[in-house]
Amino acid sequence: xxxxxxxxxxxxxxxxxxxxxxxxxxxxxxxxxxxxxxxxxxxxxxxxxxxxxxxxxxxxxxxxxxxxxxxxxxxxxxxxxxxxxxxxxxxxxxxxxxxxxxx
Length: 103
Description:
Elements: E1 2-4, H1 10-33, E2 40-42, H2 50-54, E3 61-66, E4 69-75, H3 79-82, H4 86-102
Parallel strand pairs: 1-2
Antiparallel strand pairs: 1-3, 3-4
Helix pairs in contact: 1-4
């Protein structure tokens, strides 16, 4: 998931765009088959507010969630540090997705 709010700054939009690119470039077949889901989600919408407490969100966040066990998740906090280095950002997201899926 990429969790965002209704008001979105340039950096928040960039994080979503880079994450979208990273996931689609490395996991296109998994997305097409449904084995992996990419879902930007607005946590300001009432139906999605629970995600803030479910995943301990304190800001806009990229979070990996196990579809079979939603209590198993990982917040990719380094996206904020890497947003100004697109190649490093893409590698980080792809490596983290791979590692999360193997664990």
